[in-house]
Amino acid sequence: MTGTATGRQEEKPDDSGRVRSSSPGSSPRSSPRSSPRSALVQASDEKLIGRCLQGDQEAWSALIDKYKNLIYSIPIKLGMHQDAGDIFQSVCVDLLSELPRLREHRALPKWLMQTCYHKCLHYQRAAAKLVELPEDADGDGGLPVVSADEFPEHLLLQIEQEQTLRDAISQLPEKCERMVRLLFFEFPPRPYENVAAELGMATGSIGAIRGRCLAYLKKQLEKRGFF
Fold it and tell me: Are residues 50 and 103 in the same domain?
């Protein structure tokens, strides 16, 4: 269902909330080579929102790409795997309609988290009307139980940290970003020989470049108050 909101092939998350393509003939390992990085990848929310409000489809796709993992991660963390795609779609529709009324562009991530969390509550309550839960149901093996309308603080902090990491990685030079994703965001881990071939560099240089890229990433995280 995600293809409707984003204009792209449907994508599905794994248990960590990372989104992996499910389009025919694709695989996570082929994605880094798929196309040059868009100039909008490193754009601020303010710039993306401004262009979205002008009807720029590329900016809309970039905005969704930036926050799709954040949105997906919430139902995934709540155990709502089957509903995650529908919840993602619903949040995207709300974002499209509410974007002109967003006063503080910096508040977008928190708005997305709150909106998505309340969508999860809505889906849970709708499902509870159709399925009679035992009195001692705790969500294990059944419906996820979310007890309050307030976003749990520990979950909020975890999701904010994950988004901060994603934002920092997106600000790396393109080759560094690709290297970090290839080395640390694929399972099973790829050997250096494969990473070197993907990036067009000598295998022996991977270690040194990896160290420089991680140092750059650390600086980006420090700028965002991650540590």
Answer: yes
